[in-house]
Structure formats: C-alpha cells, structure tokens
Amino acid sequence: MANLYIALLHFPMRDRAGHVVATALTSIDVPDIARTARTYGVTRFYVVTPLESQRRIAARLREFWLAEETANRREALELVAIQEDLEDCYAEISHLEGQAPAVWGTSARAGLPYPQLSWEEARRLLRARPTLILFGTGHGMAEELLAACDALLPPVRAGAGYNHLSVRAAAAIILDRLKGEDHDGDG
Q1: Which of 76, 151, 162, 179 could disulfide-pair with 38, CB 3.0 to 4.6 Å?
Q2: Rounded CA gap, 130 and 70, in Å?
C-alpha cells in the first residue's frame, strides 16, 4: 500500500454564515487525531494554519504530548507536522515520495458537484499512489479548496437527519473505512 498522509486544515474554512475564515485550533484535535493516525498507519499528520499564533499553540501541544511519559502517545505525536499552508504539505510529500500525492477532500455535505470516490474505489487507489486526505474545521472547507481536490470521499452519514460529527470522530471513521481490518487485502 502506498503512503497515506492527512491534513487538518484551518483555512480556507466556512463559518456558520458561509464566510471564508481561518478557524482556531482545538487543543484536543491534535493528540486525538494523531493517535488515530498512528493506529491506522498514516505516514504524517499535518496541522495546517496560516495563523502564527495557532501554529505556536499546535507546537506547544505537540511538545507537551511528546514529553509525556506514555510511549504510545509520544509515538503518535511524532507523526504531527505543523505547516503554514497546504502547498507546504504537498511539496513535502512530493519530495519524500518522488511523485505528487493524490489529494482527496472530505465534507459532511452530500451532493457536491465534484468527483467523488466510493469507499471501494478509494481503497483500491490507496494501494497505487501516495495520498493526502484533507479534513476541514469550522463549518467545512471553502468551495475553492473542495474544487481543487482530485476527488472527495463519501460523506459520513450523509443521509442522517443530524450530521455534525467532530473532525476527530470523522477522521477516525474515514480512516477505519479506508484501512480497517475488514478492508486489509480487499481490492
């Protein structure tokens, strides 16, 4: 299987009124998503924000958890890299892998006018090429970011009347659907 990377983005995001904003870091997202990333064999977990103050907070959180006495938590937080923008992630992955990654977006909204993969297709494609999965914050990624993705993954519980998972929960569900034990070795 090719290497999988994930990014938690804080810009460009939508606020509840639909305006494009930079969202604030949520302190629990960093260690929780890192632990999920480590569990599912993610190569690198990027925390991406253009705000210097938020990058400093992310770095302090990472350092706090790296200093933890629990080896499992340290191992997970070693996956975390803090970046100013998505292009830096893309460039780093391209350099490490010797090829550009596929970029897949996520959204809770169904019916978006962008190419969408099925879970089966996504699992098959993960084997062939390094992939970067984008997770949004706030009220989701701005349209220009979604449009720039190679494809979107299916929304989690799109048909449910209530669909407002935390990004931590959505990341865990999505990574399990892509790399969980039930999917090891299927094509």
Answers
A1: 76
A2: 30
Q: What angle do CA 28, 29, 34 make, to 5 degrees?
A: 110
Cα–Cα distance measured from residue 178 to residue 119, given in angstroms and rounded to the nearest whole number: 7
Tens digit of pLDDT for each residue in 113-151? 999 999 999 999 999 999 999 999 999 999 999 999 999
Distance between CA 39 and CA 33 in Å, rounded?
Answer: 10
The per-residue pLDDT for range 3-56, each reduced to its tens digit, is: 999 999 999 999 999 999 999 999 899 999 999 999 999 999 999 999 999 999
Name 27's Cβ contacts closer than 8 Å, sequence gap at least 6.
Answer: 57, 61
Q: What is the pTM of this model?
A: 0.93
Domains of the chain (ranges, CATH numbers): 4-183 (3.40.1280.10)
Smallest CA-to-CA distance from 178 within 74, 82, 39 is with 39
What DSSP state is assigned to residue 138? T
Side chain identity at residue 153, one-letter code = L
Of 87, 165, 93, the residue nearest 129 (C-alpha): 93
Alpha-carbon torsion (30, 34, 35, 40), positive or negative? positive
Helix ranges, the chain (H): 29-39, 52-66, 71-77, 86-97, 119-126, 143-148, 167-179
Angle between helices 29-39 and 167-179 (to 10 degrees): 10
